[in-house]
Amino acid sequence: MPPRWSIVIPAYNEARFLPRLIDSIDEARTVYRGGPESIEVVVADNASTDGTARVAAQRGCRVAPVARRRIAAARNGGARAASGAILGFVDADTVRIDPRTFDVVDDLLATGRYVGGATGLRPERWSAGIASAFALLVPFAWLTRMDSGLVFCRKDDWAAVGGYDESRAMAEDIAFLWALRRLGRARGQRLVRARSVKATGSTRKFDEFGEWHYLTYMPRVTLGWMLRSAGGRDLVDRYWYRPQR
Description:
Structural class: alpha/beta
CATH superfamily of the largest domain: Spore Coat Polysaccharide Biosynthesis Protein SpsA, Chain A
Strand order of the largest sheet: 3-2-1-4-7-5-8
Radius of gyration: 17 Å
Order of helices and strands: EHEHEHEHEEHEHHEEHHH
Helix content: 40-55%
Distance between the termini: 38 Å
Shape: globular
CATH class of the largest domain: Alpha Beta
Strand content: 15-25%
CATH architecture of the largest domain: Alpha-Beta Complex
Number of helices: 10
Number of strands: 9
């Protein structure tokens, strides 16, 4: 029998952080009412140069090599390799998922009212800068029901919207949820925020770029990307594709 769930983890040089996320997924698998064998983990190895693929394989994950260095391509490559009816996408540096995640999302999808959604997340630590960044993002999540953390949908619906937009170097996660939102609206469904099972997110970007970088660095990244300038592309690459790891 194929698994019900496939957790897709896009990963570039994540040998250091991947084990703690897998530990939390394994914990959630043990309490899932569908049984641990109903959940597979797919690590989309995005041309890593460290031991990411080895760590994933040793932990029993399916490894899907993705040569193109693009986060959207890694998410799609993992989804294509997945065999579950439900997909969950989670970043490799996520500290942990809530142990009740799979049962809660199963119950939400079983109502038929939702096309997909996200759990949301809380940071692993707080500071004034991190709190300010969250304060900027929360109203958007309230208004749109779009969030981060573990993003979930049925695999058929991932395929129906064409997966993640691989032409995007950034904001592919937002575009994907907008596409799901449009698909759901045509069927009388909507996105849902599964806030009772928030994931715990990494703050390493704040460690690398500064506590207040959402107010300083990120506006420059976003504007440069929108203007399609060479400087903007360099900022995007530095933030997402040339990390210090």
